[in-house]
Amino acid sequence: MDSQQRDRMLQAMMEELADRGYSEASVERARSVAGVSETDFAAEFADKDECLFAAYDQLTDQVVARASAECDRGEPWPERVRTGLESLLRGMAEQPGMAMALTRAFPGIRPSAYERYVELLSRFVPFMIEGREYSEVDEELPGEVELLAVGAAEAIIFGEVDAGRAERLPKMLPEILFSVLVPFMGPERAAEEMRTASMSI
Amino acid sequence: MTLGVVDTDVDVLSVSDRDRILEAMASCCSQSGYEETTVEAVLSRAGVSPESFEAHFADKEDCALAALNKMVSETLARISMAQPRSAEVSERRKFEVQAILELMAAQPGFARLGFIEARQGGTTRMHDSYESAARVLALMMQRAGHMAEKHGARAALGGAEAVLRRELAAGRAAQLPGLLPDFVYAALVPFVGQREALRQAKEAVKLAAEEG
């Protein structure tokens, strides 16, 4: 199986999960969508689970890449956070099924799948560290402040995706941005960034 | 049995059977996830008979929902008992967060069932149960914080939950009470600002040390 075929297979498998849920997701259907033979599949993956886990890893790589791709390194940190969030939210609004697979269908399979979701959130932590420089107090912020910020955004995003309202996410950029910035900058300055973001929508 | 207490014992035993089953359900779910948990596995962990299970629960989902309800009501009870006389909202919040963390540390199986399985795994009814509990918590925060913006409370809770889930998923529930200062900071910063939230977080360090 060449890498393009493999990508197609992983994509089709994730779509199966998004459309039908874990127990109904079928390798055969995904294979026929991707144009992959039974023999080729067997040479690459031990079973449905191995394919699904690989598909999830690919999807999370894409999500992280998407969030960081449009950020201009020259811009101040709060603006980079805004740009990253904006493209993440747009992506989820465009593909609500994938957003559901990302946040619920896959992590809910079993504890080992859930660990991948925890790992996904932790991959956003390094992007947050710079926020500490924007603090209005001299003392050190709490050790978990980065994940607290990521989790705040996740809570709002998860709630909307789960309620079938992923298409509303781009409009919610201002309040999500506020939630991410507030532990680093305090409510006044986070609210200023929020106002700027609502003007740009 | 000649002691004449047989009648009352039956009731006591059956109550604790139910609790044992709920405990076992929570532990099995945190080990294998709800989907792959079987009633047989729950029974063998609880050491009770299938008849006893049937006397208390209609099926696996019914049992998981009962375990969730138990966790939710215990959490709410802890929160309401955690209120000291102090009128300061931020003071009260600190005790509430501490009460929740201690409960989670003491009952990691239930914590995982409530915060992970019911949210992202499990059945629709389990998910509804998570949703309504989360709504109650967010409303409590909103009212206490006198804030109009509903997403502020959800985000503050969400940040803390992400840390909580990471610890639960890694099997580190016992260390949760040590995170009290971070959680207090997260719960307060949108409402009172960084300086005051940090001050309260420091107070929380002392509180954790006194209790520990």
Explain what the structure shows.
The complex is a heterodimer of chains A (201) and B (212). Chain A has a single domain, classed as Tetracycline Repressor, domain 2 (Orthogonal Bundle), CATH 1.10.357.10. In chain A, 72% of the residues lie in helices and 0% in strands. Chain A has helices at 3-20, 27-34, 38-44, 48-69, 77-94, 96-105, 111-122, 125-128, 145-162, 173-200. In chain A, helix 1 (3-20) packs across helix 2. Chain B starts with 5 loop residues before the first helix and ends with a helix. Chain B has a single domain, classed as Orthogonal Bundle (Tetracycline Repressor, domain 2), CATH 1.10.357. Chain B is an all-alpha fold. The chains are: A mainly alpha (201), B mainly alpha (212). At the A-B interface, helix 7, helix 9 and helix 10 of A face helix 1, helix 6, helix 8, helix 9 and helix 10 of B.
- Can you tell me the number of structural domains of chain A? 1
The average pLDDT value of chain A, as a whole number, equals 94
Rough outline of chain B: elongated
How helical, in percent, are the residues of chain A? over 70%
Residue stretches of chain A low in confidence (pLDDT < 50, at least 5 long) are none
Count of helical stretches of chain A: 10
Kindly provide the radius of gyration of chain A, computed on alpha-carbon positions and rounded to a whole number of angstroms: 19 Å
Q: Specify the CATH class of chain B.
A: Mainly Alpha
Give the CATH H-level superfamily of chain A: Tetracycline Repressor, domain 2
Biggest β-sheet of chain B, characterized?
Answer: none
Mean pLDDT of chain B: 84
Q: Beta fraction of the residues of chain B?
A: under 5%
- Beta-strand fraction estimate of chain A: under 5%
Fraction of helical residues of chain B: over 70%
* First and last CA, distance of chain B: 44 Å
* Helical stretch tally of chain B: 10
Shape of chain A: elongated
In short:
By secondary structure, chain A is an all-alpha fold. Chain A contains ten helices and no strands.
